[in-house]
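Quick one: structure tokens for this chain, please?
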Amino acid sequence: MSFSPLPSTLIEPIVRGALLEDLGRCGDLTSDAVIPHDCTATLVIKSRQAGIVAGLDLVAYAFLLVEPEIDMEIWRPDGSDVGAGETIAKLCGPARGLLTGERTALNFLCRLSGIATATAAMVEAVRGHKARIVCTRKTTPGLRALEKYAVRVGGGANHRFGLDDGVLIKDNHIAIAGDIRTAIERARAAAGHMVKIEVEVDSLEQLDVALTVGVDAVLLDNMSIEDLARAVAIVGGRTITEASGRVTPKTAPVIAATGVDLISMGWLTHSAPILDIGLDIPAHGNIGTRLN
């Protein structure tokens, strides 16, 4: 799989904000009280279940911002398949910093790895078909770029990032505009030449109108498998077809078999379970060593 890392200018303020939320006004009261300031430790990040790793750059930033002297050695980079009990990374440095950054780092890593793992399962479910798995804007506020990155790590693709990078005419737009033709024509007149227009249709009649007026993509919303197949045949390659609604690992192969180009689902980013990952003491770890 191929994906680019997130820019540090995007990662740093998000991680900094998460640390500020956790540290509050007084910092880590527990670690500061219990752990001597000159104590060092070696800990490992281990996956407690099988999945796909995503989010290690955020982990690195979490520990860097807390304690620059912490050294992080990555064993299984983003995009790696890991099994239960497998070591993802090793951390060495001041013990207070390791404990202070632990929860913020794992929150990001577990969340993004869970999304990547769920995405990879859906990609596998439609293997052999041309359909690509894509996410939506149903993301955690403030974390959209991270969650969409995790989808890419899992082998999926991204739908639009926001309201400003594409026109998607949905049912409420159509209802308020009056009809689907009016909505498309208004969008076509207003959109710049670089902006793509997609329209949501829930019937073959609406699809006919959309194709007549002309759009770049059609979102076939909550259609039966039979209607999806008919819709793909009607489109005949004239525009991109996207299926959405009631998509699960069980239904995805059947949906993909209709010949749609894209299958989108919001639950990849709003409901995917985390991947259980922990920061553990290795069997022969260097715990409690004092700094010279």
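The two ends are 44 Å apart (CA to CA).
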